[in-house]
Amino acid sequence: MNKKLIFGGLIFFTAAIFIFSHGPEAQALEVGQRGIAPANPQGSSGPAASWFIYDLKPGESKEDAAIISNHSDELLKFQVYAVDAETTSDGAFAPLAKNFQHKDVGSWVKMSQDTVEVPAGQEVTIPFVVTVPKEGVDVGEHFGAIVMEEIREKPAYGGGTGVEIVTRVGVRMYVTIPGEIKRQLEIKDFRHLLVSRLNFQTEIIPFDRVLSFLGLKPAVRYTIVFKNSGNVRAEPIGQLKIKNIFGRTIYTTEQKGMGMVIPGKETMIPVDWTNPPFIGRFTTTVDVTYAGGSPISRTISFWIIPYPLLILLAIIIVLIILFRLFFQLIVAKEKSKMQVHVVAEGETIESIAANYRVRWKLLVRVNRLKAPYQVTIGQQLLIPRENLWLSFVKSFFGSRKNILIILAVIVVIGGAIGYWQWHKKEADKKRVQAAQEKQKADDERLNIVLSERTRVDDKRKEDLKAIQAAVERYYQTEGHYPISPERSRTIDEKNIFQTELVDKGHLTTVLVDPKHPDYYYGYISDAEGKMYELTSVLENRSDPEGVRVDDFVFYRLRSGENKEPAAANQNSNGQ
Question: Which of 30, 38, 113, 34 is nearest to 74 (CA)?
Answer without folding.
Answer: 34
